Amino acid sequence: MYARGFSMIELVMVMAVIAILSLIAVPTFLDRNVRLQVQEGMSLANLARSGVAAFYATNKELPSSNEDAGVPAREKIVSTLVTEVSIDAGAVTITFGNSVNSAIAGKRLTWRPAIVKDTPTTPISWLCNNMPLPNGMTATGINRTDIPGKWLPLECR
């Protein structure tokens, strides 16, 4: 008569395979989760970017602060993932915090405006992190991005 069920060695082998697969899957899941949080936090930058664009269209120069751009103070633009959004020389920097993954808590992502000098009617192009500068344009502001590249959205790598 044959015994039914698995032997102990077969169960151990199955458990080993499951352990190996989970060791591969968990870091990938965590990276994806952090990338999604960065992407979601970037939506708050749109408020500041629209303020910068409006100020530039009106004054033919870039705002030096949130107040100049006509947007709330940096510590007032917050969400569950973002602790502040600041404007400095037209550059918009998002600081992540609150309920964000601890891997990016306190880290920043910067969008810098690229403009055509002496032609203020040309729309602003926005450069995320170290994106290449379009021909004929000048970028302003400092890139303060310190989030590792693997967690940045594709448009920022």
Overall description:
34% of the residues lie in helices and 17% in strands. With 157 residues, the chain is α+β, with helices and mostly antiparallel strands. The protein has 3 helices and 5 strands; from the N terminus they run αααβββββ. Strand 1 and strand 2 form a beta hairpin. It has a single domain, classed as Glycoprotein, Type 4 Pilin (2-Layer Sandwich). The longest helix is centred in the N-terminal third of the chain and has 35 residues. Strands 1, 2, 3, 4 and 5 form a 5-stranded antiparallel sheet that branches. It is elongated.
List the helices and strands and how they pair.
Layout: H1 8-42, H2 45-59, H3 66-69, E1 82-88, E2 91-96, E3 108-115, E4 125-128, E5 138-139
Give the total of beta strands.
5
* Beta strand %: 15-25%
Helix- and strand-based class? alpha+beta
Helix content: 25-40%
Biggest sheet overview: 5 strands, antiparallel
Q: Any idea of the CATH topology?
A: Glycoprotein, Type 4 Pilin
How many structural domains does the protein architecture include? 1
Q: Write down the overall geometry.
A: elongated
CATH homologous group name: Glycoprotein, Type 4 Pilin
Instruction: Give the N-terminus to C-terminus distance in angstroms.
Output: 63 Å
Given this structure, which CATH class is correct? Alpha Beta
What low-confidence regions span 5 or more consecutive residues with pLDDT below 50? none
What Rg is obtained from the alpha carbons, in whole angstroms? 23 Å
